């Protein structure tokens, strides 16, 4: 059975994801650390100790082929792709084998800049258009991944 797993630490689309999953009767698992405890009636929440990648590794250990993962973390996305999950970011970008290497390289370049004392411009304020695009892409993906009753 399809499950949607949310890397909820700092995720701006938790409520939108839950609304769509509720309407399509798809179970949701929210994973977060003790600094970002997120409880919702429509989902099971698992809370992990705050620490380097504790939520990421817990999520990877639970994801199954065909599940959908919502995350902003390229490293986590890469691990979930290796487990044959479908992975989206908060803007509706689907991480794939075709784009993950470039994204990981960009992350590495940004970390190099930070270590050199250069601070790349942070993300702009989230817009309603980004929320709408995520909802459109996510709902289409869930519908595609729901096994048909034959």
From TrEMBL:
<protein>
    <recommendedName>
        <fullName>UPF0178 protein QUW08_07885</fullName>
    </recommendedName>
</protein>
<dbReference type="Pfam" id="PF02639">
    <property type="entry name" value="DUF188"/>
</dbReference>
<dbReference type="InterPro" id="IPR003791">
    <property type="entry name" value="UPF0178"/>
</dbReference>
<comment type="similarity">
    <text>Belongs to the UPF0178 family.</text>
</comment>
């Amino acid at each position: 059975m399809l499950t949607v797993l949310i890397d909820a630490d700092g995720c701006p689309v938790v409520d939108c994801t839950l609304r769509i999953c509720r309407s399509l009767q798809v179970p949701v698992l929210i994973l977060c650390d003790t600094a970002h405890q997120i409880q919702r009636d429509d989902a099971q929440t698992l809370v992990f100790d705050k620490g380097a990648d504790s939520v990421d590794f817990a999520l990877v250990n639970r994801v199954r082929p065909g599940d959908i993962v919502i995350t902003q973390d390229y490293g986590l996305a890469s691990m979930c792709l290796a487990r044959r999950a479908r992975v989206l970011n908060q803007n509706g970008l689907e991480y794939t084998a075709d784009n993950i290497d470039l994204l990981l390289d960009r992350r590495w370049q940004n970390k190099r800049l930070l270590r050199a004392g250069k601070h790349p411009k942070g993300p702009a304020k989230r817009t309603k258009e980004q929320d709408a695009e995520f909802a459109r892409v996510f709902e289409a993906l869930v519908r595609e991944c729901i096994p048909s009753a034959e």
